Amino acid sequence: MSLFRTDLLHADAPSDTKVPRKKHMMCLNESILNPYPLIDEAFNQTMQDVSLNRYFDDIRDTLHKLLTEYVGHGIKEENIIWANGADDMLYNIFLAVREDNDSFALSLAPSYFDYSTFTRAVGLNFETLDFNDDLDFDADKYLKVLNSKNCRLGILCNPNNPTGQLLSDDKILYILRNTEKPVLLDETYFEFSGATMVDRVKDFSNLIIVRSFSKAFSMAGVRFGYMISQEKNTLEIRKAQTVFNVSSLVQAFVVSILLNKHVFLAHTKKAIELTKQMHSDLGALPNVKVMPTQTNFVTFTIGEKTSKLFEYLKEHEIAIRDVGAHRLLKNYLRASCGSYEQNAYFLEQVKNFLKLS
Ligand SMILES: Cc1ncc(COP(=O)(O)O)c(C=O)c1O
């Protein structure tokens, strides 16, 4: 007899072993800014008034106010709930929509790897609809599965990781109009793409937007993410969360980041320019195909020799991500935007490899 869930017996535990640890970490779409030195004064100041010995602290209200202001578009405090990273937020939403053993969530594929990990963890089945070869998708086919009896949630990642492209607004709206099922729009890379459906939350009672502080706000190691939806949804999803889920320490950190948001948004602008440069530099090399990107990463292939390039880069202290598991991305790699110098070094190593091979 298994002491733990039998459906998870043969699953892998979440681990970071698949990601190589190298000097140049260009594999997880992180920011290159370490935020603490940039906000330490604001953080230390904010912490003066936080009682870490208490469960409740007013920092929660300050955070709600600042985050609501940042999100804008008439969104109110009751439209926002938060968690320890977008991952944790996704996990909570999956937990909140699961009804029974037949319940499933639907995502386009290829998309964010961990949708399948977290749905599985909460016992929610997971189905996918492949993008077309041109990375567009058939909204009617998507709706057909979404509107089927046991589908509890549609997931759309916008812009999509790991392909980098935005979905068309028309298709997202078409889906929202033609289903009553909840549609989770993952806007983790919103600050890079500038595209959002936040202004449509008031119109669609089934729209749930998830965002992250890991990318534009440099907080991957601190962990903070949030969702925006109509109040009736935030109330339901809140029921699947623990009561004091995000520590006052993290809340104070986010407050300090938001008080200094201009620093991070200015850096994001720079990262967008650097990503564009990386995209055009790579695309100018012979036999390199690069996907359009609205994010802080580039997804590319050099064809049959791609896996050798991946190893070569590792040997030269560059970690990027092999995203080739899905048929549509066979032989594709994903590289996050680094500093100007890191990107130049990355490009030089790709060029060296192409000369050698
Ligand atoms: C599309 C997408 N969603 C969610 C996440 C998780 O973000 P967080 O670090 O906030 O948990 C990532 C991280 O790379 C992502 O790419």
3D structure, described in words:
- With 357 residues, the chain is of the alpha/beta class.
- It folds into 2 domains: 19-33 and 262-356, Aspartate Aminotransferase, domain 1, CATH 3.90.1150; 39-260, Aspartate Aminotransferase, domain 2 (3-Layer(aba) Sandwich), CATH 3.40.640.10.
- It has 12 helices and 13 strands.
- It has a 7-stranded mixed sheet, with helices on both faces.
- Strand 3, helix 4 and strand 4 form a beta-alpha-beta unit.
- Helix 2 (59-71) crosses helix 9, helix 5 (139-146) packs parallel to helix 6 (169-177) and helix 10 runs parallel beside helix 12.
- It starts with 23 loop residues before the first strand and ends with a helix.
- Bound molecules: pyridoxal-5'-phosphate.
Short description:
The protein is an alpha/beta fold and 357 residues long. It has two domains: 19-33 and 262-356, Aspartate Aminotransferase, domain 1, CATH 3.90.1150; 39-260, Type I PLP-dependent aspartate aminotransferase-like (Major domain) (Aspartate Aminotransferase, domain 2), CATH 3.40.640. 38% of the residues lie in helices and 15% in strands.
Structure keywords:
Aspartate Aminotransferase, domain 1, binds pyridoxal-5'-phosphate, 2 domains, four-stranded antiparallel beta sheet, seven-stranded mixed beta sheet, 357 residues, Aspartate Aminotransferase, domain 2, alpha/beta
